[in-house]
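Re: export button greyed out
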Amino acid sequence: MAAVGVAGLLLFGVAMVMRRLLAPVSANPVRLTTYESGVDPVGSHWAQTQVRYLGFAFLYVIFAVDAVYLFPWATVLRDADLGAASLAEMGIFIAVLLVGLVHAARRGLLRWLP
Amino acid sequence: MSTLAALAATTDNPVADFGDTPWWLSLVKALLVFVFLLINTLLVIWFERRVIGRMQQRPGPNRAGPFGLLQTLADGVKLALKEDIVPKAADKIMFWAAPAIAGAMAFVSFAIIPMGGTVWMFGHKTPLQLTDTPIATLLVLAVAGVGVYGIVLAGWSSGSTYPLLGGLRSSAQVISYEIAMGLALVAVFLYAGSMSTSQIVFAQNDLWYIVPAFFSFVVYVITMVGETNRLPFDLAEGEGELTGGFHTEYSSLKFAMFFLGEYVNMFTVSALATTLFLGGPAAPPGIAAIGDGMLNGGWWGLLWFVVKLWLFMFFFVWLRGSLPRVRYDQFMRLGWKVLIPTTLVWVVMVAFIRAAELGFLGDSKVSLLGRDFPRATLFIIACIALAVLVAAWFYDNHQVKRRAELEEARAMDEEIDPFAGGHPVPPLPGQRLVEPPLALSAARPAPVTDSGSEENRG
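Workaround output, generated via the alternate export path:
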């Protein structure tokens, strides 16, 4: 696993060295400006964006944690001691989450345009 | 079914035995996986361009080498010979790190994919799989999560508006679809009772999970297209909206790294789909029966694995050739309002079906068409059918009401002739177009009474 990762980084490194040896470098400073479809860039970089991404980020945390609980449960469901009880508990857990999602949707959090 | 349950109940540890695999053999296998992915990437880019060419009735690249096979190689060399530009406004370190992360992370997941049966390699008996752990499938999700950093950081560090928007879009897109993807996989874990890839493949001996977990398969296929930023979900680099999206400021080999990462990611998600739903390296049902399974396992597994992998590749290309890009709000709505709730319900459903199979819900059986079904399973399926019917009924009512409202709103609109001013104009809010007559009926000699409107049109 680690070997494949290291191999990937190695590939990147070798490619970068090769590129440095082969590729041309132009001295013109204009090429270093930000690309805005051919016109001079307006304003500074890193513009502000809408906060609407934030709602999805919060929901993601909730459902990611939900998935984290589901994964180990999926492998112990077959256990006769845990199975039936965990089944009911998971049903309630997921039902609560679904109610939460429906609430978020009704409050308009999932609507992209306000 | 009881044998299947017993199989799954044995252990959640990997079936693959790495006892006879020395460390140097692991390195050799890592190198082979790496080369396999690189060659496949070179081939799939050529394949994509040729197939899309056929779909659009043009030849596609056919000059470099036989059938244009070397075109990708030529393009790669060309990219290496291009000047590498780091914009003045960019955050230098992250600008370098992003393509490295995107490129390197794409390869890691392939380590846990079983690509064939157990084979003899340099005098050792070893499975055609680099490694496996009891939580191997989680590793793929984790690595996919790290891989997103490549795109997000590329967008942020470029110091430019288009890449920033592309990176933001991509992060929202990937986290939204990762949830649906993870939930779709839970159903597979429930059936297999394990997260180890070799164990999951082993548990599919009787029946590939595409049958019992069909809904998971559909959701997974949708989310894997969303995760890899491919059309129709390639909003992170939508050319019409964001010029190049997150890689607008990248050039030369750094740009090539993003492309390499994208294509290797396609192979990774396809390989995971093959492993979890299509029996991995197992031979297709008809062929597996030939000669007591002589075409199943060993090196033959690699053939079946590659065939299944490339079927997914063709599917990706086919999608790109036939579907336009979706709008961003529609894309998010599909993820959050359709995929996630339905997949949650599906997981609960599968859990109850599994519990019925394992006998938690009573042991009584019903004989139907000569096969025994547990009563609990039938009861649950009946409940689900009822729920689906009720939902469909509500949805239908809702649609009828909405259509009626729309009709009403249309009826109140003022009719305008789009050609009244001499050239066609679109309707304003509250206005409705009068459809111009079809060319055929317009060409007919008009009755005398109709000449007024003809004059109007100029």
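The longest helix of chain A spans residues 52-76. The button fix ships in the next patch.
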